[in-house]
Amino acid sequence: MTSLQCNIGGVPLRNPVIMASGTYGFGREYAAYVDAGTLGGISCKGLTLHPRSGNPGCRVQETASGMMNSVGLENPGVAAFLEKELPYMATLDTAIIANLGGSNAEEYVEGARMLSVHTRQQRQQGSRGIDMLELNISCPNVREGGIQFGIQTDTARSIVRQVRSVTDLPLMVKLSPGAQDLVEMAVMCEQEGAEAVSLVNTFSAMKIDIYRRRSAFHNTYAGLSGPAIKPIALRMVHQVARAVSIPVIGMGGISSVEDMIEFIMAGAEAVQVGTYNFVNLRVGTELVEGLQMWMQQQRVESLEEIRSIIG
Amino acid sequence: MTRIISNEQIAPDVFVMKIAGSYKGRMGQFYMLRADDGYRGDSYPLLSRPLSIHDRGDDYIAFLYRVHGRGTAILSRMTAGQQVLLEGPFGNGFPVLDDPGRIALVGGGMGTAPLLLAARHYAQADIYLGFSGDTFGVESLRQAVESDTRVKVMNSRYKSILELLEPGWYDTILACGPAGMLKALAECTAAANEAALHDGEGYPASTHLYISTEKHMACGIGACLTCTVQTTSGNRRTCVEGPVFAAEEVDWNDLTTV
Ligand SMILES: Cc1cc2nc3c(=O)[nH]c(=O)nc-3n(C[C@H](O)[C@H](O)[C@H](O)COP(=O)(O)OP(=O)(O)OC[C@H]3O[C@@H](n4cnc5c(N)ncnc54)[C@H](O)[C@@H]3O)c2cc1C
Ligand SMILES: Cc1cc2nc3c(=O)[nH]c(=O)nc-3n(C[C@H](O)[C@H](O)[C@H](O)COP(=O)(O)O)c2cc1C
Ligand code: FES
């Protein structure tokens, strides 16, 4: 019997396939394509304490084997999430991860506190809250709101520490590939009591409209994702996994079962899939089934046998 | 199910791709298409391309498209028997009105594509088409409406479609085309509504203009928020709440700068 089970900070996942933040909405839109009950988890669209309408102008450009987005954390805010989206997500038979961004420490702290208090209350009433908090200190698409906390370890440390002090939810910190010292950043998260780190968020990137002679994006830069970033993301996951003992959730350009296996061999406890959901709306379930088949063919009974085997 | 029946060039750079199978969809809705190279791999193009439903029958669906960049160029080189992947139908489509009153369909260039289904639904409509170069798709539109004299065509790089029609004369207008054309049409309609031009004999009390818009898209199903358009009631997703919007709802700056 093969087992796909994994565990992140005490949260058991049925398998290591998690849908990445910002690519899966709040789960509703994919209901017609994917049975959420087949997935390891869903990380919801990045939330902020207050609603945000996101960036103006063009928000997506395609590039060789990838895409750049400049959505700019459009979201309804934490309160509206708790009221309107979470009740739906709670019906899904999969781990619910709330992805939280912010433009200053107070916003992060208050957002995290609201999510934690709500979950505690829900559980007291015998219902379901969120299972995990993914702290997004890595969104490149908002000038004030995420990535400036993800570059320098000391700035990030203060956010992680403050959020840790107000939440007892399992805490996963989502790291930016733009971090000055990614390994140091991950070690810091472990020191500050995070249960896991996830990486990578999108790479800050650019496209110029040569006829209009300006950036294709209103915000000048945008976030690159998709297969184009996979080799770099994989190297980063490998480096981080060597340096910390908390679970590492790997992502960046995953588009096949083989890609997932690479991340797991590099040291990932679980993986997230983002951009590829757009290419194939059913990819979540297909990857889970494909992973199961791969393991049977390769006579791998548990992911432990292959995890982190690349020295 | 996704076998190409034919992929015919009908004007320079303009093709009609007919695909076998039974597909759903109303006028103004769209599908996301990509070539199926047998390997849903990581090569270009990554994202699927949104194309409006041009025609649809019990055992086929057809798309009318122009070669714009690499994605549509790849589609244009496909031949009968090859496979495409398509998901849909997506979007709201043109409104189904019990009583549209006097109705016009307005298409500019590729904006002709979604009008065929609309013409079949509103066979009483007057149709105005503007091209700048070669015309295409006109004949099937003539066949779709009650009288082919209702179809007026202009082919000019310099003239505005507004030289052909007076928006204020209609109760309902459904339009698709370049953002600049749609904007001019919207301004003209708004002016007519405001100036109470409508008070003239035979004119309706007001004109309702619906436009089909375009935004770059990634998912097509409402999850990624890359296709939002600013409207009077906040951001709306072109792929779910659109692509058809009431003209007075949308922020034209947001539509024409992209
Ligand atoms: C709802 C909707 C319906 C459409 N219906 C039709 C149709 O029936 N016939 C037709 O010829 N065209 C239609 N278009 C436009 C068509 O989607 C683009 O021409 C096509 O995506 C261009 O792809 P490309 O690879 O050839 O061009 P490239 O410029 O190389 O494409 C690069 C990226 O930009 C996107 N993109 C470029 N132009 C547009 C555009 N105008 N709208 C949306 N995305 C764009 C592409 O999808 C791709 O992701 C429609 C667009 C939308 C949003
Ligand atoms: C359209 C889009 C929106 C995204 N929004 C968020 C977000 O709100 N919060 C976040 O932490 N990451 C966000 N991401 C980053 C993804 O979760 C993921 O880290 C990144 O895209 C790399 O994975 P991929 O190559 O599989 O897409 C977004 C990515 C895309 C493409
Ligand atoms: S294309 Fe993703 S929300 Fe519209």
Care to describe what's here?
- Chain A is α/β, with parallel strands linked by helices and 311 residues long.
- Chain A has helices spanning 78-89, 105-124, 153-166, 182-191, 230-243, 257-266, 276-279, 283-297, and strands at 6-8, 11-13, 17-19, 41-43, 60-63, 66-69, 95-100, 132-136, 171-174, 196-199, 203-206, 208-209, 214-215, 221-225, 248-251, 270-273.
- Chain A is built from eight helices and 16 strands.
- In chain A, β1 (6-8) and β2 form a beta hairpin.
- Chain B has helices at 70-76, 115-121, 138-144, 179-194, 252-256; strands at residues 4-11, 14-20, 30-35, 49-52, 55-57, 60-66, 84-90, 103-108, 126-131, 151-155, 172-176, 208-212, 228-231, 234-237, 244-246.
- Chain B has two domains: 4-90, Translation factors (Elongation Factor Tu (Ef-tu), domain 3, Beta Barrel), CATH 2.40.30; 103-255, 3-Layer(aba) Sandwich (Rossmann fold), CATH 3.40.50.
- Chain B has a six-stranded mixed β-sheet with strand order 10-9-8-11-12-15, with helices on both faces. In chain B, strands 1-2-6-5 form a four-stranded antiparallel β-sheet.
- In chain B, 16% of the residues lie in helices and 31% in strands.
- The relative contact order of chain B is 0.14.
- Chain B is α/β, with parallel strands linked by helices and 258 residues long.
- The interface between A and B is medium-sized, with 38 and 31 residues.
- Flavin mononucleotide (FMN) binds next to loops of chain A.
